[in-house]
Amino acid sequence: MLNLQIIITTKILTLKRISEMRVSKIYFSLIIFLFISLSVYAQTDRNSGVKKDSLLNKITDIESRVREVSTKDTMRGFSAPLKIDTAYANQIQEASLQPARDKNGLIVMIPDWVPFSNNVSFRDTVIFEPAYLPVIFEGKILPRNIDFRSKDTTTSGVEPFHLISPDSTFAPLLERVNHIEDMRKLYYTSNPQKIQLNALAFKGSPVIKETVVEQRNPFKDLITAENPFEFSTPEIEKIKIKPVYWIINGKHELQASQNSFSEKWGSDNNFNLYSNQVVNANYKKKKIAFNNLFEWRLNLQQITGSKKDDNDGINIIDDYLRTYSTFSIEAFKKWSYSTNLEMKTPLFEKKKVGDRTVVQRAILSPFELNLGLGMRYKTETVSKQDKYRKFNVAADLSVLSLNYKFVGDNRVDEKQFGIEEGNKSKTEYGSTFNVNLSYSRNRYTSFTSRLKYFTNYEKVYVEFENSLNFALNRYLSTTLYLYVKYDDSLAPENRDPKFKFFNYNEMLRFGLTYTW
After folding, report:
1. DSSP E strands: which ranges in 306-442?
2. 118, 183, 354, 392 from 359: Cα distances, Å
3. How far apart (Å, rounded) are the C-alpha atoms in residues 76 and 211?
4. Which of 30, 114, 233, 398 is the most exposed, having the fewest neighbouring CB atoms within 10 Å of its CB?
5. What average pLDDT does the segment 131-142 reach?
6. Same-domain status, 318 and 401
7. CA–CA gap between residue 73 and residue 110 (Å, rounded)
8. Are the beta carbons of 397 and 422 closer than 8 angstroms?
9. 469, 480, 435: which is closest to 251 by C-alpha?
10. What is the rounded distance in angstroms from the CA atom of residue 467 to the CA atom of residue 505?
11. Rounded to an integer, what distance in angstroms lies between the CA atom of residue 258 and that of residue 302?
């Protein structure tokens, strides 16, 4: 028993000495490690001569990143950096070991500082560095990446794994923004008396919209007035315009000629007066058209002979009242189904020259009526160069037509109108073709032509009327007129001895003309 106690006591003492020796070795190792660290740190301070400060290291890193921002030389049309607070600038300059300002008070930048690369152009653009913007107190004192969780040190020394390299993402830009924010935060915590702007004062302020500047066009400036007149649109009361279906216009002519001869000249004095009154009333609605023409023509001649005889007085050369109406319904393109009606009669008595007892014409003697049914073709062409240059054609092709003549005055010889002796009227059936053509070369020259052709398939009656008008102004004009008739139903005693079935009337007139 005694021996067992001695053995246990001996082992306890041995273990105690061993543990004391281990503690002594640990203390000795710590003392040696601390001495080596202090020696290295002192040697580093002696070599650099600069105190290492973590904040200055961050500022130096920020300044190096600012230098990496690419732009062109500010002497090529760019704005200089904005002025900033002196203390704020000194902190940046102290971090880069450069003087703060030059003699003009501007910040002295590094000589080889190139803000942008050579392939970037910012003409007419103000370049600014976010680090030089005015410092605004935002109320953010604590760091953004503050974390109260315990850090796991088991994986220290192992680089984190990334599927995409951070250099290919926005990580470098975000890191640069964080450095600038830290620098601003350091500034307004160190110099609160110099901060004059507060972020709360800008709360609710409108956002500045982007302004697009148009490229300047020098040719536009050459044709633009310096002070152009401004016209304001007047307020006009809206009025509903009613459609116009009726169009009424007219033409009035009064022309005269006078001839005077001496007694031995061998001719009689005469005075001619020509009057022509035309009114058109046309109706058009959708596919329905109703055209009306009213014409009254009178041509007078006064003969004053050298001797008083039966030739003295007034002789009526031409006299008739004529109406021509057409009712049509549009069929296709320029063609339409139509029916037309023409009526004509004299208004005054016409007596024979040399024998004033013979009455050649009188009212309703003759009265002529023509009624047709067929197709109508109408077209109008207006020149693109001159609005007064027009060409109009209207043709009425009446395959079924009725022609009626009536002589009501017993003093008038009915045979001269193709009516058999002893009868007062004559009715014929056949076909009628009426063609009206007008052409105006310009505002002052115009030509009109009218052709009427009727046949009962045994005899033919034709009227061909042409007028060439030269307008001197709105009221004076000269007209060259030609009227030709052909009628093979005339009795032999009423035929012209030279032209047989033909009769013509030719005039050269000058006088007043009015068109509306």
Report:
1. 313-332, 335-345, 350-352, 355-361, 367-382, 390-406, 425-440
2. 111, 127, 12, 40
3. 24
4. 233
5. 75
6. yes
7. 12
8. no
9. 469
10. 12
11. 9
Mean pLDDT check: name the lowest of 5-19, 147-161, 194-208: 5-19
Cis? peptide before 497, omega within 30° of 0: no
Token pair recorded at residue 130: 């976010």
Q: Amino acid identity, residue 125?
A: T
Mean pLDDT value across residues 179-207: 79
Provide the residue count of the chain: 516
φ, ψ of residue 177 to 5 degrees: the values are -65, -40
Query: 128 and 273: one domain?
Result: no
Question: For the CA atoms of the chain, what is the radius of gyration?
Answer: 59
Q: Which domain holds residue 393?
A: 246-515
Q: What's the burial of 112, exposed, middle or buried (CB within 10 Å: 0-12/13-18/19+)?
A: exposed
Q: Give SS3 for 501.
A: coil
Residue 451: which H helix or E strand, with range?
strand 445-455
Stated pTM of the model: 0.52
Least confident of 21-35, 37-51, 135-149, 176-190: 37-51
The set of residues, in sequence order, having a beta carbon less than 8 Å from that of 511 and lying 6+ positions away, is 253, 254, 255, 256, 274, 476, 477
With respect to residue 8, please indicate whether it lies within any of the assigned structural domains: no
Instruction: Select the more confidently predicted residue: 91 or 384.
Output: 384
Task: Please say whether the beta carbons of 391 and 384 come within 8 A.
Answer: no
In a domain, 125, yes or no: yes
Question: Same structural domain for residues 344 and 484?
Answer: yes
Burial of 324 (0-12, 13-18, 19+ CB in 10 A): buried
Closest CA to 176 of 190, 166, 189, 165: 166
Residue 439 lies in a domain: yes
φ, ψ dihedrals at 393, nearest 5°: -135, 130
Contact 331/375 with Cβ under 8 angstroms?
yes
Phi, psi of 47 (to 5 degrees): -75, -40
Q: Which amino acid is it at 58?
A: K
- Kind and range of the H or E run holding 35: helix 2-48
